[in-house]
Amino acid sequence: MSKVTEKPYAPACERNQQVILDVLKRVIRSSDRRLLEIGSGTGQHAVFMAPHFVHLEWQTSDLINNHAAIQSWLDEAQCPQIKTPVHYQVGSTSFPEGTFDVVFTANTLHIMAWQLVQTMVIDWGIYLNSGTRVVIYGPFNYNHNFTSSSNESFNQWLKEQNSDSGIRDFEAVVDLMSQQGFNLREDVAMPANNRCLIFEKC
Ligand SMILES: C[S@@+](CC[C@H](N)C(=O)[O-])C[C@H]1O[C@@H](n2cnc3c(N)ncnc32)[C@H](O)[C@@H]1O
Q: pLDDT tens digits, residue range 52-98?
């Protein structure tokens, strides 16, 4: 994360926000009322995307040390649908309260340790209702293989930061989700060797 003016700024969000929005437009229904974003980061995705879904409350969340950054984007956006971040740290805090129709998380599965990914998915199995959709954006491996040399280099860089981080296997994620009652609806190819995985709870 670098800084432009006073607000923390993630250049990757500028590059991927439109293509993720296009996917969310296909996933979010007019009857949906609440979306939970896990690992909101700077808050840029929320600020860019939420105004396209005026019927929806967009609940941001992250570790407490990212809340000031998220709030600085929210303060500037003045978008009442976007809610002040809640403290959701997978493995340490309880799942955010209330009912969610959609869960969206970008670039978190390769940051969290696999054990935390498992905990997060178990939370989804417990707290999300039938019909809830989960949209996961990020890089994935297929058949234990990297899909590009840039993803392989990225994985190496991730491991240097934290040996528990790393690009996850698509098949392992689908299997984990299935164990918690989620069916894979779509696996959408995204630019820069990323994917958007769309699941729905049975
Ligand atoms: C690479 S950033 C992605 C941020 C944003 N979603 C994006 O795409 O720019 C990873 C995010 O996951 C969050 N994160 C890391 N560990 C987490 C945990 N245990 N529970 C919830 N979020 C976590 C980080 O604080 C960070 O905001």
A: 999 999 999 999 999 999 999 999 999 999 999 999 999 999 999 99
Q: Whole-angstrom Cα distance, residue 197 to residue 184?
A: 7
| Residue 108 C-beta-side C-alpha neighbours within 13 Å | 25
Rounded to the nearest angstrom, the distance between the alpha carbon of 8 and the centre of ligand 1 is 14
At 4 the pLDDT is 46
Domain span at residue 147 reads 2-201
Give the DSSP H/E element, type plus range, for residue 9: strand 7-9
Give, using CA atoms, the residue closest to atom 4 of ligand 1: 41
Return phi, psi of residue 10, to 5°: -110, 105
Judge if pTM exceeds 0.90.
yes
- CATH code of the domain containing 13: 3.40.50.150
Cα–Cα distance measured from residue 127 to residue 96, given in angstroms and rounded to the nearest whole number: 9
Q: Are strands 168-169 and 140-141 parallel, antiparallel or unpaired?
A: parallel
